[in-house]
Amino acid sequence: MRRLVAAGKLWIPLGAWLSFVLAPYGWMFITSIKPPTELYTKTVQYWPHHPAFEGYRLLMQTTPFLGYMRNSGVVALSTCAVALCAATAAAYCFSRIPFKGKGILLFGFLLTQLFPAVLLVLPLFLIMRSLGILNTPPALILAHSTFAVPFSTWLLTGFFNAIPRELDEAATIDGCTRLQAFRYVLLPLSAPGVAAAVTYIFIYSWNEFLYALTFTADLRARTLPVGLQTFMGEYIIRWDLLTAGGVITALPIVIFFMLVQRHLIAGLTAGAVKG
Amino acid sequence: MPAPRRFRICCLVVAALAVLFVPGGFTPLHAQTPTVVHYWLWLDDPTAPMFDSLVKEFNASHPGIKVEYQLVPLSEYHDKVVTALAAGSGPDAGRFKDWWLGEFVKLNALEPLTPLIGKWPGRAEIIENLWETGKIMSSGPVFMLPHQFITFYLYYRKDWFAAAGLKPPTTFDDFLVAAKKLTDPTKNQYGFGLRGGAGGQDQWLAFFSAAGGRLVDGQGKVILNNEQGVKANQWYIDLFRTLKVAPPSAPTDAYAQCLGAFQAGTTAMFAHHVGSSVMVTQKPGADSVGVVPIPAADPKKPATMVTMAGNVVFAGSKQKEAAFTFISWLSEANATDKWSSSREGQLPSVKSVSKLPRYTNNPFFKVSLDSANFAIAWPPLPGVGYVSAQGWQANMQRALVGQISSKDMLDEIARALQR
Amino acid sequence: MRSPGRFSAEAKGRHGRGGTWVLPLFLLSPALALLLGVVAYPICRAVWLSFHRFEILRPDLSQFVGLDHYRDLLTDPVLRIALANSGLWVAGVVCFQFLGGLIGALILNQRFPGRAAIRGLALIPWATPSVLVALMWTWMLDGNYGLVNDLLVKAKILSRFQPWLAQPWSALPGVILADVWQGVPFFAVMLLAALQAIPEDLFEAARIDGASPGRVLRHVTLPLLLPTILLTVMLRVIWTANYMDLIMIMTGGGPGYSSLTVPLYAYYTAYKRLDFGSGATIAIVQVLVLAAVMVFYLRQLRKNEVMVQ
Questions:
Q1: Label partner for B146 (CA 20 to 30 A): which of A89, B280, C51, C205?
Q2: How wide is the angle at C-alpha B227 spanned by C-alphas B293 and B413, nearest 5°?
Q3: What residues of chain B lie within 8 A of the CB of A231, using their CB?
């Protein structure tokens, strides 16, 4: 009985929370398998009478959807690499190296987040054009990295700060260089922070729309969010393609996080510093 | 020669040969690189191969020109063009809407096409009064080449009308009688799908004009907020506020919601145009749907609304003639027929095409083309761009929910049109 | 093998003459290059725009108008409505996203079978493209055949369907609901990561002392999470203030101006009225408000002595 109550304390809140989180996605999935005639009905129809996966087939075979996904993947992974490197280096610097003007610099990092994208898109377009990278993935990788770096830096700085300096020092006394201390002590201990930062950067880049639309709308370089929007025409809305596309677009991130979340485990710092 | 040196020379020779024969490395003098024309457009159904095959056909039949196109979602099209122009780049030619004509001509962004049209043999084939849609002043140059247009008409559930003993509406009185009779909130059924949300300004203009209101007078002066206009607008507002023949969601209903409501059997009448005829034939089905011109307050003075999606050449283009060759090709009988008969299809601007049986035998096309005789377009004022994107919507919604009066709404729109 | 004295030599340098500049510069250069090279120019451009009347096709002909745009905005009733809506939008969204995320983080921190898969699934709202979030929620909140209405009527909470997005008082709350759904996983992931940094022994100690889960939460967990909470809440406030995709697709700012927020107003002014100068000014008004908020927050962070050592 006690075990039942204990289990209930976990599974009931989990079930309720998950229902809220998954219901609209479920609705999107249901919509994607409804034939067009069953889409708008007088009373709400929860499950289609004739479910069909036609939308998915059309999506894969008649649209450049897989190409969009490849482009999005390339941009997102590259952005992760670039932004993570820049942010980790900067965070290490903010956390472990004292210098004047640190506070102002950190504040400056955040200043860039204050402006709405819509205002910055025009001058950014000019920059991309003068660099000659319009309609290529590097334009997006550059734009996305720039906007992902400030938050990632702040996040990682916080995680690095939470790890006592004594651990670094212990490592260096044992004969490591700064870089080795960073690689073998600091980084593993801040794995949760790195995991969180990588997740944030990937998702931001994967779903980013405005810069993707403005800098790379050419068919060869087009990413998923822009591609999905083309399924909404002036008078014809391809709900089948849109919702099938939506269902599939979320899945790589789910898989990505299932791999990354291994690093979100507790107890790494327990007992690390004795006395 | 020692071996490494020989090897190096071989490499150089191979490299030089590669440069010569790799495409683009060295162009033989007699070949001609085609002029590249960049064309932007939006399409309704991006999975349909119609446009791609048209471009291939053009490129094959015009060896000196190569058209490269970019598909942009309509909702972003205007903004993307503005950004590109502001950055000094942008396409050579593009699909265009008459909503934006006024503001773009004011910016000197469009190339006047009259001289090029003068040399184009296909000009006599265009339906005469459609040239107006591409001009700012009747006596002025043409900025937009007519291509695909639509006129508004009214869908109605002929099965419900028959069951209720109603005849298809031709006058406002018929319309109101039918709307009231077919409204039953308890069954979640309403007479008319009023569209207060995005894009609803076209339908509003159709009814506003049919009620006797006018946006501008003969001299181009803005008169929509005169007494006649206020009354016409009030009639439209009352459909929702006092008569309640529209669903409660009307203020923010956009195209998807209005079409969906008609398909689901929530509304009995829905004003739109030939662009949705395919969807409507699918559901509720050709047997349940009838189509009539927009009812008029005074049967002797019918009116509806026309909007043109044409093609323009941008002033900053370096390939104006080649660009015009492409867009004028699109407005010739062959390309126009292919476009109009596809799922994308709207009304053809070419006389001979509009007389083809596949259009005259299609009830939706027929009613549209007949309505063209008394159709009114948005005036080519610079403020129309803003009004059609945001100005009409915000003020119509405020009037529908009772925050402002009919006169206030029209005053605001008049102010925006005159900026 | 480096000599142990190397570290102490650096330490001397640190405490002595303020440290060397080379290493910090080298480490910061990628981030700084990105920010200065890519973002600084657009920001300066935006500020410049607010002092000019921008000619779209001939930017060199733009006129300097000084504070005219700012002066005009002082008497703009729509801006006041937009600011109020923005305040409501940010407060509503961040509050509930945070609560939902905290609950999620606490649950996902427990050990249970299938945790990896469930943690993956929990990311779905954040992983769904915004256009689909907007379309699905618009459909779910629909006044004629929306899921939400159907469930509420079936549960006897409502007597009839409500057109949530068509009523001035419920339009913005409707969009807030959609954004809350989309953002809960963000907080869940960030707080989950921060939870890992709390040593197990602290929880053990509290449990041994007989503290209830509620007290553990209040006196152990939350205080230790505070730095992360403050950081993520502050950034979420800034991002939410600038986030207009959902509002644009779900209500377009309507009905009327009842869900119009400041960035949406700036966008309409710039791209629909083709008045980039005024649009930039509206955006900068919000930047100033947010900057003030940020300064306040940073003072709080400093009090926690986390950022500046």
A1: B280
A2: 75
A3: 46
Q: Does C143 touch chain B (CB under 8 A)?
A: yes
For chain C, the average pLDDT equals 85
pTM of the model: 0.89
In angstroms and rounded to an integer, the radius of gyration of the C-alpha atoms of chain A is 23
By C-alpha distance, the chain C residue nearest B193 is: C144
**Count of CA atoms in the C-beta half-sphere (13 A) of C204:** 5
Residues linked to residue C64 through DSSP beta bridges, in sequence order: C52
* DSSP code of residue B281: I
Residue A240 to chain B, least CA–CA distance (Å)? 12
Q: Minimal Cα distance from A45: which residue of B?
A: B264
Q: What is the dihedral of CA C129, C131, C132, C135, to 10 degrees?
A: 160
Reported CATH class of domain C76-303: mainly alpha
Q: Closest Cα of chain B to C166: distance in Å?
A: 5
Closest residue, chain A, to B68 (C-alpha): A218
CB of A218 less than 8 A from some CB of B: yes
Contacts 24+ apart (CB under 8 A), A46-49: none
How remote is the C-alpha of A144 from its chain's centroid?
Answer: 11
B135: three-class secondary structure by DSSP: strand
Which one of A97, A169, A258 has the shortest CB-CB distance to C7?
A169
In tens, the pLDDT along B278-322 reads: 889 888 888 999 999 999 999 899 999 999 999 999 999 999 999
Q: Has residue B170 got a pLDDT over 60?
A: yes
In this complex, which chains have at least 3 CB pairs below 8 Å with chain B?
A: A, C
Domains and CATH numbers, chain B: 35-150+308-376 (3.40.190.10), 152-305+381-417 (3.40.190.10)
Residue C34 CA from chain centroid, whole number = 21
Q: What CA–CA distance (Å, rounded) separates C190 from C231?
A: 10
Contact A93, C32 (CB under 8 A): no
Per-residue buried b or exposed e for C240-258, using 16+ beta carbons within 10 Å of the residue's own CB: bbbbbbbbbbbbbbbbbbb
Chain B residue with minimum CA distance to C273: B386
ipTM, two decimals, is: 0.88
- Kindly indicate the confidence band of residue B117, based on its pLDDT and cuts at 50, 70 and 90: very high
C-alpha count within 13 angstroms, C-beta hemisphere, residue A34: 21
pLDDT tens digits, A8-29: 778 888 999 999 999 999 999 9
With beta carbons less than 8 A apart as the criterion, state whether B217 and B223 touch. Answer: yes
Q: Is B244 helix (H, G, I), strand (E, B) or coil?
A: coil
Residue C7 near chain A (CB below 8 Å): yes
Phi, psi dihedral angles at B293 (to 5 degrees)? -65, 160
Residue position matching structure tokens 């309609």: A135
Q: Where are the domains of chain A?
A: 67-230
Report which of B357, B358, B339 is spatially closest to residue B349, judged by C-alpha positions: B339
For domain A67-230, give the fold.
Answer: MetI-like fold (1.10.3720)
SS (H, E, C) B16-63: HHHHHHCCCCCCCCCCCCCEEEEEEECCCCCCCCHHHHHHHHHHHHCC
pLDDT value of residue B28? 47
The H or E element containing residue C229 is helix C222-242
Mapped onto helix, strand or coil, the DSSP state of residue B146 is strand
- Give the residue carrying structure tokens 């050592």: C309
User: Rounded to whole angstroms, how far apart are CA atoms C104 and A19?
Assistant: 12
Contacts of B94 in chain A (CB under 8 A): none
- Residue B349: other Cβ atoms inside 10 A: 24
Q: Between the CA of residue C144 and those of A44, B142, B264, B398, what are the distances in Å?
A: 9, 45, 10, 21
Q: Touching C: which chains, 3+ CB pairs < 8 A?
A: A, B
Residue C304 has what pLDDT? 64
